[in-house]
Amino acid sequence: MATTTIKFNGHETGSLPLKLMNFQPVLLAAGRGERLAPVSDKTPKCLIPIGNVPMLWYPLRSLDLAGFSDVLIVILKSYESKISSALDHMQKKVPWKTEGFHYKFHSIVENIGEEEGTATSLLNIASVRKNDLLVISCDLITDVPLKSLIEKHTLHRATLTCLMKKLSKPEGALPGVRSKAIAKENNVVGIDEKSDGLLFIYAAADHKDHINLTQTMLTRYPRMLLTSQLEDCHLYCISREALLSVPHATNCHSLRTELIPHLLTHQYTPGDFSIDEDKLSMDLVTKLSSWTDHTGDMHGPYHDTKTRCYVHVAESHNLCLRSNTVPDFYEANKQIGAYTQHFGLGSFHKIPEGLKRSQAGNDSMLGDRLNMGDKSSIKKSMIGSCCEIGDKVKINNCIIMDNVKIKDSCVLQTCIICENSIIDEKAELKECIIGAKQTVPTGKMTNEVLADDEDEFI
Amino acid sequence: MSAPVEGKKVAPKSAAGDVLVEKEPFLAVIIADSYNKSLQPCTLDRSREVILYCTSYPQLIRSHVEKSKWSTLMNIKVIVNEDARSVGDALRDLDDKQLISTDFVLLQGDLVANLDLKSCMEIHKTTRESDKDAILTRVMKDCPPGHRTRSPNTSSLYALNRSTNQILAHQIVLDSKKVKLPTELIREAKELELRYDLLDCHITLCAAMVPSLFTENFDYQTVDDLVHGVLGNQEILGNTMHVHVVEDGYAARVTDFFTYKAVSTDVLEKWAYPFSPDTEWSNENGISLVSFGNKYAVSSKLFSKKCNLGSNVVIGDNTAIKYGASISNSVIGNNCIIGANVSIQNCYVWDNTVIEDDCSLTNTIICEQVRLYKNTQLLATSKDTMAMQNIDFVLGKGVHLGPNVTLDQPVLLTAAAMKDDWGEPFSAYESKGESGRAFNFVQPTEESSDDEEDGDDTSAEEDDSEDDAVIPDTELFYNEVLDTLQRAEKENISADNIILDINSLKHAYNIQINEVNHMVIQAVLQRPLQDISDTATSSQLLTNLKPLLKLCIHVFKNYYRSDKSQHECLLAIKEFVCDQSHDLYTPIIGQVLMFFYQNDILDEDVIVKWYETSLQPGKFKTQVSKLVEWFNEAESDSESD
């Protein structure tokens, strides 16, 4: 894919400083990535490399490109130094674009589980900051202009605005046990196409035989689109006031499974939260004007409710990758090559000196200090730094992380090899996932996962 | 509502008249009877042949068709079948007579529209070409909730394929009900559009095979039935149906007083152009625009110079208006006399009506030959949100009111008493002034309320036949229960003992359990009435009732355990208050039901179901509706938790 479509590099910086001031970006990076096991066994999820760059760098870069300068990163306390040094390392190679760009860590204590606590962290942040929050997940790689979301949110003085994308399934062969490539959860999303209003999300697990629609929904949005083809990208603008004053919000732990559904249903409940004076006066302006967002009845704009949720659906030419599962992670690595220009990684993936083109094609990304033997070839693959590759090795469509030793005459196809693993001579691996610090003996393996027992990970 | 207002007599016709002649014949079938409430003869062009199918008032329709100029433009066949009771019957009859061999348009007569039928037909044809299984296209008008031409009672919900507008599912949504949408539907379709903003124009473009479908399924009564049937058999028969949504143009149906008013207003305000009172399409009486502000009249020679005509007014032929009368937003028929200083607002006055001096009318429909004597006041004060919104008074043909009578509560009046099947008058005579002649109009009761529990009916009937020999003495039993309750109140007998008492009485008098259920609640309601004076108010009654209700909580819990028995209880309450006219209970019925609900005696669902299925509109229902609304609010509250 050509990189010429990226236009907003130039004008996004600086063109929106005023509106950006009103948002506090929060990067959620405290997840453990259970669905990425065994890749995430020894590495915190946010540091798992995509295109040889730690995952969380991409959303951080998106915020940087959009012109934000002050980012809060929610992480687990124990990984603070690891993450900090990884980001410092990246900064040396690819400096931030926005002047004065900096980030702070909002560390949370270990014993909180993965999804648990995201909402709690946000509430804590909202109570000390003055702005609406722009929440982004560390596993999202996107070139959707954040501007479009922010504008929609600001324009409607929305409670929640979220980014969604068309459901896509990774194509071609995938590493790992076949049954792991489970069908994605098909949430049913209700959208009012006229206003881009987000009406509800019924999680696949919640609805069994029927979906309940209330009279209020139908009367307010008599023409709604129901789709099972949209996927939440975990990028949200959330109104600070709503977060702080929605009743029960303090009892929410998880952002995705508790807080968001809560905000969505709050659209239909009478009784509003208090909102600040600026927004109140704006509401008055809307009320006095002849503008309305719907036709038919004689109710005021937004049906006189103050809780309103919107959705921005990524256009088909936009990049929108989430790597929260192994197939998605693999897919993200495959696609990221086409977008290095956008993220300013152009100089990052140079072919190391002394390697011939024939050995490693342009379609591959190679890390530093790669030691590669004779008559070996690498195609459509990502190789981490400090790897040793012996003679007559063939690597095809693979993700190979740092410090991996691949001995002579190995054939690897569609595999994920995690850091510090050793592949013995003449091993033939196809569609396998090898966890960290594993030693793979000589022989053939197809469609297998090799990792430590699950109990052992932190 | 059996005579149309000016401007509504004529249905779809658009400008270019003779374009379609060269095409293959497209047949139009107009069902002149809506099988609902109203009847309006309609005609239609753009089809070479028109079959006008009617059940009632054939002479009226025939004469209208002959008089109108359409009969010269096209071939109109009038078929009269007095046995047909529904659209289904009509189409079965047509199938039987082998009158339909091509695609045809099916219309029903209560539509006012200026849609371009030709383009609808073309869309139907293209759909049929691309989808061989398509059998019908329903023409819909977008009409969002809250729009005035939308009847507030029921609405349809359609699930459509976004690109083809194929109907995937159809549900009738009753007010205050949640809609359950099968997940399966979305899983299969992946993406679909839910439309709650569609008004069925009752224009259906059908393939020639549609009447035979009605013949095959003799239980189909309406096009809706057909749609449901076809959707149910989609996997087997593979027939598909589509919707065509008309975005411009005007279309609305008159189904009740609410929409009657809305459509009339639209016609007067020229939304439905060319159907406005002064255009040639409807102008058989020579009505013309007399001045700005949509004021129409045949001639103004009988109008006093001092009368005051507001905007949106139509005055019929030979109608006199005396000095000081002011009329706005109203339609007055032919040969009427409007007295001096009369004020008429938002009214529909039909032919040959006399309104004497100093009357004042608002939100009223007055049928033919009504006479209002001096100083009769029909004042709309209520903000009733029920179906009759905007129309508060309906005076049937020949009603007389006054003089010096004031009505301030919504009411429907007829000139003769309603009679039941045995010829016994059952509607109350309303004395409305010295010269008054008016009876309350009561919606005929459908015989459903008692026969509803069909599940257990068979066993109950068997029991009945066995016990035929012994005559159950219900009245004695009832009185004994009353005595028991009185004793219980005085001597503070516990609920368990009351139950024991009642059960032994049940055996003594050989009473069926459903009758016990029926009578226990009635006796409890009857009990406080014995103690209070005739002039007591409802609130006094409530204070007397409360201790007894508390005493009997466990009695109720004993008898009203199942949903079925709870429903019986509610039916008994309704019978007691409405049918035995213990009107004192009407204002407090909400509180009484609330008590039952809060003490877990009656279930919310049962109350709502009872409210929706067994209650006729009236004050009683209005009272109950508050409770039901409260349920709904509470429900949406709890959803958010």
TrEMBL record, chain A:
GO molecular function, one term: guanyl-nucleotide exchange factor activity
Signal sequence segment: none
Positions of the EIF2B subunit epsilon/gamma LbH domain: 357-441
SUPFAM superfamilies: Nucleotide-diphospho-sugar transferases (SSF53448)
Domain Nucleotidyl transferase: 25-171
Subcellular location field: Cytoplasm, Cytosol
Keyword Protein biosynthesis found: yes
GO cellular component, one term: cytosol
Keywords, in A-Z order: Cytoplasm, Initiation factor, Protein biosynthesis
The protein's assembly and partners: Component of the translation initiation factor 2B (eIF2B) complex which is a heterodecamer of two sets of five different subunits: alpha, beta, gamma, delta and epsilon. Subunits alpha, beta and delta comprise a regulatory subcomplex and subunits epsilon and gamma comprise a catalytic subcomplex. Within the complex, the hexameric regulatory complex resides at the center, with the two heterodimeric catalytic subcomplexes bound on opposite sides.
Record-stated family: Belongs to the eIF-2B gamma/epsilon subunits family.
Function, as annotated: Acts as a component of the translation initiation factor 2B (eIF2B) complex, which catalyzes the exchange of GDP for GTP on the eukaryotic initiation factor 2 (eIF2) complex gamma subunit. Its guanine nucleotide exchange factor activity is repressed when bound to eIF2 complex phosphorylated on the alpha subunit, thereby limiting the amount of methionyl-initiator methionine tRNA available to the ribosome and consequently global translation is repressed.
Name of protein: Translation initiation factor eIF2B subunit gamma
Annotated source species: Bugula neritina (Brown bryozoan)
From TrEMBL, chain B:
Species of the source: Bugula neritina (Brown bryozoan)
Chain ranges of the W2 domain: 471-641
Subunit structure: Component of the translation initiation factor 2B (eIF2B) complex which is a heterodecamer of two sets of five different subunits: alpha, beta, gamma, delta and epsilon. Subunits alpha, beta and delta comprise a regulatory subcomplex and subunits epsilon and gamma comprise a catalytic subcomplex. Within the complex, the hexameric regulatory complex resides at the center, with the two heterodimeric catalytic subcomplexes bound on opposite sides.
Family, as annotated: Belongs to the eIF-2B gamma/epsilon subunits family.
Gene Ontology terms, MF aspect: guanyl-nucleotide exchange factor activity; translation initiation factor activity; translation initiation factor binding
UniProt cross-references to Pfam families, sorted A to Z: LbH_EIF2B, W2
Protein name: Translation initiation factor eIF2B subunit epsilon
SMART domains per UniProt: eIF5C
Region annotated Disordered, chain positions: 427-470
Biased composition (Acidic residues): 447-470
